[in-house]
Batch of 3 targets.
Target 1
Amino acid sequence: MDQYTLNLLVIGASFALYIGIAIWARAGSTAEFYAAGRGVHPVMNGMATAADWMSAASFISMAGLIAFLGYDASAYLMGWTGGYVLLAMMLAPYLRKFGKFTVPEFIGDRFYSSSARMVAVLCLIVASVTYVIGQMTGVGVAFSRFLEVENSTGLFIGAAVVFCYAVLGGMKGITYTQVAQYCVLIFAYTIPAIFISLQLTGNPIPPLGLFSDHVGSGQPILATLEGTLADLGFSTYTQSHDSMLNMFLFTMSLMIGTAGLPHVIVRFFTVPRVADARTSAGWALVFIALLYLTAPAVGAMARLNINTTMWPNGVQGEAISEADLPQWFANWQVTGLLAVEDKNGDGKIQFYNDAAPADSPIMQTAAERGWQGNELTTFNRDILVLANPEIANLPGWVIALVAAGGLAAALSTAAGLLLAISSAISHDLIKGAINPNISEAGELMAARVAMAVAIAVATYLGLNPPGFAAQTVALAFGIAAASIFPALMMGIFSTRINNKGAVAGMLAGLLITVIYIFLHKGWFFIPDTNSFTDADPLLLSIKSTSFGAIGAIINFVVAYFVSNATEEPPQEIKDLVESVRVPRGAGAATTH
Amino acid sequence: MNNGNGEAYWKANVRLMITLLVIWALVSFGFGIVLRPLLAGIPIGGTDLGFWFAQQGSILVFLVLIFFYAFRMNKMDREYGVDEE
């Protein structure tokens, strides 16, 4: 059986499983559609949250980023896990006790203001839509690569699958589907990593392998990697190349963005009890950590594998000859994401950093041996995880499994985001403001229509990507960090913050963050309309991706001063806050 | 539940939370980023302890923190009589 048929079989089987579960668990009432009737066990909920959370960015991109950035990519690892500590302690139990379905509903009730609720809807939609565009783009790329179809065809197939289980199933469908997706994606991620760790270190546990000795050199893996990188003129792997200030703020933005993203928060509305909301966050992090502890090993080992593949006898020996390049080179060259060019025509492929300083040893070696520049001309970071099983010579079924895993990651996140968008529109905008008397059936219909419209918009924007996949994700985090997280936190931890303070804070955080990003990335991401670049940012060394933390501080400060300058919240709101703080009396959810 | 109980419970909760968040910040922003130069002398698997905290240690500590918080809070819910019946 050839690889194409195998990919098709494994991906098809995984889809049949997801859609089957969605049909089996079809939602009947609004409570089930939004929050799975609150009957989801914490471990199941943690697994589903993990699948929801780990998108194409975590599965496909992150290990590649780590491989090429080394220590500097640690911000992703700490940021995308540390946010769960904030969630478990500062938000999840109290929002569950509050007992409503959506994030804007909490903000509207706590700040006794429908304007606050509408501002929260705006923040939620901006953050979720930007995030989902990136996911749809990822779905399209992964489908087209493994089904060998055109990018747009892959995107349409992906949109149809998302539509089926998100629109028909609602949350309950999504919860159990996402449990299945988690299982697929974690096997797909760890199996190649285990084989590679065994090959390189003899240790079958990748996170331990990362700090073990390399079987070839007898030196630690990281020291071996540093050695080969230094030989080839590349910058160090384990040292910092970013400013400490920017790395600090970037990590902080990702952490509080994690705790502020509505599709993650809404997960904690679906557990039976307040105590379960706390443990659910813990279980979610357990399942996320399985991938996040593996990723640094995947990154470092893949980087080492590339170096030793290109230089089988070290840089003092001969480079690999073009005819001896492994099969995966040919497979990936087709996509244009990997390219070699024998610039000096010696039949060998010299891979080194041709941008190293002129007086560095590698440049002198290059001059002596007549190299005409780096001949591994293109190596896209995003192919690293998908190509990993091929790099390590693993069997075809592992390659197909990784393809299914990447799709599971992208699809599950897209579906969770779409649910958050549709409930914000149908529940908060239509039922909460436009037509409060809408029937349950009408609300459910509105939610499904909103979801279909959101899929159409995301598919359209995914077809014509504005060319900023990585920045889109960062923007979504920055917005969530600067707008939603501070409002939720102040709503729980302060009885003094009032309606005017919350609205002013959210708007200030949102606008200043969005403007800072547009100043660096172009207005509405239109190229060449930016006044600054991330290499030379407006404020100190703060890149636009790191600004969410500053936006959050602005939100807190504005809300504090505006609240103190205006009247105190009424007594019933203070009582509401007091009651949210204690678990007793957390019953089933109510719609009003 | 009387009000005094609720207030004492909330104070104890905030105290526990702040203690755990100090540890949270110390292992990530501290050992992983700002204090890394101080840990440069402690070698581990070909690099230093700061790198380990940034790429592995902090995540492991986060896990312990959440489960410890959940365990303590569940106990406190009962002690202060505010648990869900």
Target 2
Amino acid sequence: MIRLAAITRVFRMGDQEVRALNNVSIDIASGEYVSIMGPSGSGKSTLLNVIGLLDRPDGGRYELDGNDVTDLSENERARVRREKIGFVFQSFHLVPRLTAAENIELPLMLEGVAPTERKSRVDAALDAFDLRDRARHRPSELSGGQRQRVAIARATILRPTALLADEPTGNLDHRIGAEVMALLEGLHHAGTTLIVVTHDRELGARAHRHIGMRDGEIVADET
Amino acid sequence: MTPLDTLKLSFSTVASYRTRSLLIVLAMALGVAAVVVLTALGEGARRYVVGQFSSLGTNLIIVLPGRAETSGGFPGAALGQTPRDLTLDDALFISHLPQVRRLAPLNVGVAELASGGRLREVTVLGSTSELLPIRHMKLSQGSFLAQGSERSAQIVLGSVLAREFFPDGKAVGQRVRLGDSRFLVSGVLAVQGESMGFNSDEIAIIPIDYAQELFNTESLFRILVEARSRNAIEPAKAAIRHALTLRHDGEEDVTVITQDAVLDTFDRILRALTLGVAGIAAISLAVAGILVMNVMLVAVAQRTSEIGLLKAVGATSADIRRLFFAEALWLSLAGGAIGYALGHFGAWMIRLAYPLLPAFPPAWASVAGVATALITGVIASLLPASRAAKLDPVLALSGK
């Protein structure tokens, strides 16, 4: 359960103030499939970053799964991100030095999971995302679709309640993009809250709830 | 994140930036090696000098005639007297002092040595059988001047002299002529080389009576006294001075010196020198530390998006800080270890090239060199690590 109340986020560009989020209030129930759409600069990525606790709002309250997370310390925010949130990025953000398996293992390592258990969980994830024969490859040796599958496997390895995807198909061709979306939707069917930011209308239309943004405000919220 | 995982992950990072890591490790290693090699040189010089002094003898007290210090007027000067000679009787008297283990009176001069048509000038030492143990000399053949045989015409030749006069190696038992007298070769000194600019391979040693007769003198050049122990040196010195003053009608007209005083001074100077060069070498380590800091700052800038990603998947600021910290630790550990090995190799090469110089790096320098590398590396990583930890994940991920 995600509950944002009157969230404001202001960026300063020189002596100009930009209200990336202006008094945004929104409730997203567990297990929902939401798309956030709008032109660039409308604040949709900022909204996603606030939901994902990467960014701190300048005003308003944020409640996640019944807990107020607005004023958590940096360390507590890192813990909540680790346990409840999974991020999928347009540019994958894999660590180039690490193999596919090691990239997927990262959150487990940060969580302090024992190596033997890490291995079995990573193996399971490699199987689930059809990456078994790519386990020892580095990102540079993987195709775009494979990279995004590694990123999704990494985002979901700790079974987060919410999966936040920022233009997940932006760097992929149409066919591979559709495969990746099918994968994300499969995770949604298994019970994960899925929030996708995109400016691709077709992609946005697949979600069950469509939130439209413009100039830092929610201008549409349709199911 | 567990410490073990932090170490593993940072190691794989360090290992993957091969060129960069190698350069840092090299800079660190050269700094540590410089510390080790330079202190080895300093320590080698110190040991060399100390060794040279102790080859002269241990617990050695040297008595020479005349005053080397100015104190008061010399009453005899008005009567036209000169300082008294230091005589064999003086030596005999001193030898009965309880603090004295043994002594050797010494006369030095130059005379012509001849045998079998060969002829050369040699430095002649006149002394007694005690000279051998006091001066730590060794014989390669025959026997030294036999005890109580000061009156028999024996001669001991330095190794070079023996080889020059008797190329067949059978010097012992041969007769030689020194000045106008004939001597029987009783022994040959082992090769000792130069010691304090004095080559004992080219000397001849004869009994003190013959030397005094040869050089036509009653006065001794020196008396070499060996005290019973290191602690007995000062009492022995005082006792000798007192005894000789009594014997010389209350006139303190001898100089008593110990080599320990000289040796201690050299020891202190060379230790200070070693510390000094170690300090200079340590500066190169500090420079390496600045290099580490610079490279790690660049690394933080290069890996901004990776740091953002780590934060997005739940790394705390402390995790990030520890990762960069551990990278610096690996680099300086490798630099320290390689530098240590390199330094010891360098010291070994120096010992190989200059066998006379015992260039062994002192243990404290090796430890201090490696420790300085570790400390500078870790300190240098503090700023980059905290900068990385403070990165705003949103900005970091967007690559700004």
Target 3
Amino acid sequence: MKKTPIIALIGNPNSGKSSLFNQLTGLRQKVGNFPSVTVEKKSGPLMLEGQTEATVVDLPGLYSLYPKALDEQVVIDILANPHHEDYPDVVVVVADASNLKRNLLIFTQVADLGLPVVLALNMLDVAEDKNLQVNAVKLAMKLNVPVVRINARVGEGLDNLKKAIVQTLEKPTSFQKYYFDPAEQFPELIKEVKKSSQLANNYLALHYVQQHDIFSFLSTEKRVGFDKLIEKYDFKESGFQAAETMHRYAVIDGLVKESVKTTDNFLVKPLWTQRLDNILLHPFWGYAVFFLVLLTIFQAVFTLASYPMDMIDAGIASFNDWLKETLPPGLFTDLLTDGLVAGIGGVVIFIPQIAFLFLLVALLEESGYMARVMVIMDKLMRRFGLNGKSVVPLISGVACAVPAIMSARSIGNRKERLLTILVTPLMSCSARLPIFTILIALVVPATPVLGFFTLQGLTLMGLYLLGLLSALLSAWVIKGWVANTEKGYFVMEMPTYKVPRWYHVGLAVWDSVKSFVTEAGKIIVAISIILWVLATYGPGDSIEKAEEQVKQENPMLQGTELDNAIAAQKLENSYAGHFGKFIEPAIAPLGYDWKIGIALLASFAAREVFVGTMSTIYSIGSEADEDNGTIKARMRAEINPKTGKPMYTPALAFSLLIFYVFAMMCMSTIATVYRETHGWKWPLIQLAYMTVLAYGLAFLTYQLLS
Amino acid sequence: MKTIADLKIGEKAFVKEFQQVDLSLKLLEMGCLPGSEVMLDFIAPLGDPLGIQVNGYCLAMRKEEAATVLVEESI
């Protein structure tokens, strides 16, 4: 046995594979990527008998080894390549016993590759409700592999599963015969492939012929070689694949007849699913419920999350004050408080929102409701060139565009997926929220409207609606320019409704929060520190000269006023100040000065940096005292040197608000679009069209309002 | 020729033939094979997509996709 054997979980979507993975690994699971692809990889340690620790890898759910979506490609890429770091020593095929035939298809394919397999029969309770009696012993004899009955939702049968895994690791069941042998029809072709690629398995050889184009481990020469073989033997790829699938189902039919007793007919939906579908797919109630669900999500993300967010905000602020008082004053203390702690605070404060959003999205997905939303929204979304499945990225985009864009992978149609990726960043993400709230609070009064709304709240909602509307309209405009090169399908399984398990939902939330803090956190903290340095130092001795300069120009100034003027001059002379001055001509038509220019540039790393930057700039520019302790107060006190009136007029604030609704101010999003579309073309187009929208509309707003 | 898109809710039929190769590969893998009995389960509010019961579960597809699957009343 290997020192840390690798156990891969494979199975249909909705077969309970992820539940089993959660039960086996719990909080020890890690989320990462498969090497050289961006497919999310979940893995975790599993203690087997004795001292052996195995690594469990959860592979993307699929119906067959012939991938139909991007995520699924990674499975055959691993299984066909024994040198892959995730190549499994044992494969556990998780099968939904209430849908055994369809779930056994992938089992027979994996078994035909000659991999050691354990079959985990899940959802036997659902099968029994459907009057299906699955005889696991008979099935094990027929399939010649260990078959274990499990209940992944509650964690039953895990010990037996571990025993079966150990047993298979120690003494793999000998390969008996192919469920489907491609050599029966193409003996010469299979022989030639086996010889040239040094393979022992006929079915693996077939996959080299059928799927060499997506095998990352093959050289281009080799791929061309396979194309020549296909021509030489007049091999029809699609036709052969169809014949394979039908042959497998014929074999499976026989197996299932002998090991499953049933009295029911196959066309009846479970009662509760039928009842819920009657409501949730109803022409009126379906949309009414969906609207309510959306409202609940927004309410939770903005209202419920604001309580823990305020607490975190206050906590960070008092911690920062405490640090400033306790530590000796100096550069290091400044860097720690104004740079690092302020930056970390900017990350931590988003945790409640992200957690709430992912909690609700996970609940919708676990319960089976999300599939219904996709169905009722498909036709509407298609008018804009999108897909019913675009609903998930668009909703998730309210939290963060990065996971949202990645979730667009489930969209089979290339064009619809691309459009979804291009417009998702227009959904106002949680990073824009602090910018919105602070600017709205500056210029919009909290006048009550209709009793429980306020003008501020309505303005905020208006900005979100503007984001949604522009996402749909942009998709509608762009769709005419994107060619549809590939056929993709909407075809998808409608899972039965299930009561969500809190443990699984909780783990999903934990994972997303953890990856947000580590991924986004790194960037934000780095930017905060860089910015602090750029705002504190300047070229040559310009910073040192600032004091003299101020004293010479304004000999009358004294006390606090003098200190403020010196601090402001220092900022102006710093690297950041030069930066801001440099771009000032370009942003002046929008009403922005060089200080806002610094914040704009800094926020390109991540929008949430904007408020932090404003706070850094204005705090460097002045002493904190009772009156101007908060960033809002400092911004309110800022005077426009040209007019002598407050800098933040409604025109400027709305111009900034509109700018941030449309601007693609996020490097992580650009990087994600680059990875997802495999090139710079689309991220650059997206950056260009969003920047044009942002600049143009902010310009219009400023000119109209001022 | 009658297709899945022509079925009424609750109406049953048997899959006869696929007219679109790539889609047929997907449907075959999902257990919707020639000879399988299907029943139209629901039509989404705006008339599209629709859902069929097949092989013990519910499968949703767009109307234009359903229109490429020929069916007949009996085998």
